[in-house]
Amino acid sequence: MSESIENTIDIDDILKSKMGAKARYVPGFVVSWLKHVVHQDEVNRYLWESRDKVGTDWLEECVRYLDMTLDIVGMENLPDKNNGKLYTFVSNHPLGGADGVALGSIIGRHYDGRFRYLVNDLLLNLPGLKPVSIGINKTGGQSRNFPAMVEAGFQSDNHMLMFPAGLCSRKTDGQIRDIPWKKTFISKSVEYQRDVVPIHFGGQNSEKFYRIANICKSLGLKFNVAMLFLVDEMYKNVHKTFRVAIGKPIPWQTFDKSKSSMEWAKFVEDRVYEL
Prior knowledge:
Domain Putative acyltransferase ACT14924-like acyltransferase: 14-273
Structural class: alpha/beta
Shape: globular
InterPro entries: ACT14924-like_Acyltransf_dom (IPR045746)
Largest sheet: 7 strands, mixed
Number of strands: 9
Distance between the termini: 45 Å
Keywords: Acyltransferase, Transferase
Number of helices: 11
Protein name: 1-acyl-sn-glycerol-3-phosphate acyltransferase
Strand content: 15-25%
Strand order of the largest sheet: 1-9-8-2-5-3-4
GO molecular function: acyltransferase activity
Order of helices and strands: HHHHHEEHEEHEEEHEHHEH
């Protein structure tokens, strides 16, 4: 394997960028385990083979690579790309990876690549994804630049694709559902007069993933350990069919003062789960 393949995703480099000098205290066996869990070699091989693609083309290549079949319901609810309006697309986040790739491929194709994600900043290590992404620091404290990044996205001439939960779905009392949605998409959609398009993505991760996530929560760990397993979960979800339901746009004027932004966020979240 050539040098260029090996260095695309490099756990050693990521640890250094996140931990600085403390990275050298991480035991070698832990680093090896991390490389195994994130499928470093497999991912780098794919990144090398798809190195000539970026944005929507790269996302569609990912869908092919993962052999995902998308059963799309409500495609007619996607607004006309030539109507001069910008939209905020919001979805539940059951998988934490493949769902984002799939939705990006759908929105990107329909709107000629004119969309941006708000994503975990670790995903900016993926060259094909970077052109359509605005990165947020999810591993340390919330980035000081977060408000500016969101502002830049909504001020741009791009549609926004957001997962308002911020994290992928968890299993609570036997039910797989997002953690409560954050209100940013409501306040910004109103400020920039963007109608909100609700999307429901059907799918789930393994029982092991939900156990790890719940253990971390019960221990009160600040670092999202479950996030490390999302690539592994992605590989477990290959060759599967996923139902994607697109709802009718909700006019931004709906989100008036009769409810708080948090209450409106819950209103849209419930609408998504009804799809």
